[in-house]
Amino acid sequence: MSEIVAKQTVRGARSFRGLCTAAVVAVLLTVPFLTNDYIQYVVNLVLVYVLVTIGFNLVLGYLGQLAFCSTAFYGIGAYAAGLVAAHLTQSFPLMIAGSALAGAIAGLLVSLPALRLSGYYLAIVTLAFGELLRWAYIHADTITQGSTGMPVPAPTLPRFNLDSQTHLYFAFLVTVALTLWLIRNVLKSKFGRSLVAIRNNRLAAMSVGVAPVHATILAFVLSGAVVGIAGGLFAMLTSRIAPENFGLSEMLIEYSMVMIGGLGSLSGSLLGAVLLTGAPELLRNFAGYEEIIFSLLLIVVLRVSPRGLGGVLASRLPFCKERLFVERL
User: Fold this and answer.
1) Positive or negative torsion for Cα 118, 216, 67, 278
2) Beta strand extents in the chain (DSSP E only)
3) Measured distance CA(49)–CA(57) in Å, rounded
4) 17: which residues sit within 8 A by CB, 6+ positions away?
5) Whole-Å CA distances, 310 to 33, 212, 225, 278, 324
6) From CA 173, how far away is CA 183, in angstroms rounded?
């Protein structure tokens, strides 16, 4: 009898999850028909930050390394996409591939000190790496056009120009969906479980055959590739990138998205990106007070739910709980 009840519960949870997924897909497909150009731009920016948050969470939440390298990956991915478009091709897939490759190489470079450092020491090194890249964007003006910024030509697809916010939205949506599907499957694999094992207890992970060196390097490379793709999308969205887009303030925003969403939670990453990208736009009407209101919202959310929005989902909706989600901070 208990087995029958358990099967019915699982079947019901899967049906409800399927209905929720269908509803989300329907809403996403109808968004361009319900918005103007400005709101569509904000929605596109949300998609960009979804990838940033997911990529950052791979290192910060799943691997458990205090590495503030997402802004470095973000910037190098953006400039890679701009350089590919300016000197090689404006093909959307090739611009994305260039961004992913540049981000992955940056992730490989950052993983080397991560093998020997941890905690605040790694945080300082990764912050310095991001500032070093920003210095390079400013002074390598023959390549990046310096502090004035670099224009990014509009991307194209075969027989299709991505010259409007609506066109970009569908291209971004497909890119984000495919990346999210890939990351979800990676985290469900042996590699994903290895990351969490290293985060929880490095020595215990090594005792069961996990290789921390290989897992750490792959985690940073994967994080760099995902955030690099986000940087490429940002370059296409804004049509112009400058070093000021990738400073310390940007890093703080990205870190807040991960913490608000929840460490080690994909669904939390989505919610964190949506909330912290959309909230500033809603608060623009409160001139002079938006920073105060925004800060209070962050404090309240973290105070009420230290595990972030992902923790709220996991506690209220059991079928939303992720196996690798951090139960305690």
Assistant:
1) negative
2) 150-151, 156-157, 160-161, 240-241
3) 12
4) 319
5) 30, 27, 24, 18, 12
6) 15
Q: Are 324 and 275 in contact (CB under 8 A)?
A: no
pLDDT score of 38: 86
Q: Could you give the CA distance from residue 162 to residue 156 in angstroms, rounded to a whole number?
A: 5
CA dihedral 234→236→237→239, nearest 10 degrees, is: 110
Q: Which two tokens stand for residue 284?
A: 């623009």
Instruction: Enumerate the β-bridge partners of residue 91.
Output: 156
pLDDT at residue 54 above 80? yes
How many Å apart are CA 164 and CA 146, to the nearest integer?
27
* Stated pTM of the model: 0.88
The Cα–Cα gap between 172 and 170 comes to 5
- pLDDT, tens digit, for every residue of 76-120? 999 999 999 988 889 999 999 999 999 999 999 999 888 887 788
CA torsion through residues 46, 288, 309, 21, sign? negative
| Torsion from C-alpha of 255, 259, 262, 264, nearest 10 degrees | 50
In the block, tokens 């004035």 appear at 148
Dihedrals phi, psi of 327, to nearest 5 degrees: -75, -35
| Distance, CA of 278 to CA of 168 (rounded, Å) | 18
Angle between the N-to-C axes of helices 70-87 and 119-139, in degrees from 0 to 180, rounded to the nearest 10: 30
Helix (H, G, I), strand (E, B) or coil at 241: strand
Q: Give 91's DSSP letter.
A: B
